[in-house]
């Protein structure tokens, strides 16, 4: 399935590149000099080739070089997509103008209009990706308040910090986690939850211990808990390096497991339904057999799915990630259609769902249209 998805995307990428090439050559005009055409060809090649080259050489190059190529390829891929969308929009406007005639003739037929428009497109695209690169490196804290109509012993409130979709790997290295540690130090949460996609896929030897060492610096009196996401291939094997390193740092990975948090509440951690080669996901109803549902129930699930199942089971708060809120506009329009809630707070009766758009990035190291975040939740208990 993944191979089919990649093949379709590369085919679409090729069509977008061809469209940009044709429109770029048309903008140059027929009298364009040979040197100008050569310059366009060089710029075009630097724009479209890094992404496929980075994809094909990812497993052949040293880690440092592969990381650099992944960043360059991600930037160029988004520039291609944005160039295609903007040029397509321009052509739609031109087509509408044929019928409605709203563009003045002196603008439409001015010899410098194509070049001016081309420069404006380049500036707009460069501005978007430069902002997206900066934005991806500057996470914010988004705060939520949730009231649960249950007792939690003598506890009146619980402060939770939740982080999803770190995607530690070639792009998000240990240095990129320093702001995360700073935010955690500022928040001083009672409980820290990692909602999946901690990694960006299979890690090289030693990288799992490096990641666990960084995450182990986080302090939380009630503990740090994690669930696997669809990218967390190193969390399949309980005896693997990453699992062992996380456990050594006191970070417990819950794969369809329920644990009490003190004597006051329960935390239920779900396995990801598409963690390849992993065990089948256990039904929530089975996980909750025999528990005291009068206590507050927190569900940690990488994907914001099976919401009705969670609500019917009496879950008070579900914390999820996975969506990235599309990560790069206009992909957020797609995630909004796929998920009932792709970012923020959803409340249905006593059931609350909070979806994070994530801390790191997948694919292009950019965020446009949303901010990377750490989620802070204050749960108040009012029986």
Automatic annotation (TrEMBL):
One of the record's GO molecular function terms: hydrolase activity
Residues in Calcineurin-like phosphoesterase domain copies: 158-325
SUPFAM superfamilies referenced in this protein's UniProt entry, alphabetically: Metallo-dependent phosphatases
Keyword Zinc-finger: no
TM helices/strands, residue ranges: 6-24, 36-54, 74-93, 114-134
Keywords: Membrane, Transmembrane, Transmembrane helix
InterPro entries registered for this protein in UniProt: Calcineurin-like_PHP, Metallo-depent_PP-like, Metallophosphoesterase_sf
Keyword Transmembrane helix: yes
Entry protein name: Calcineurin-like phosphoesterase domain-containing protein
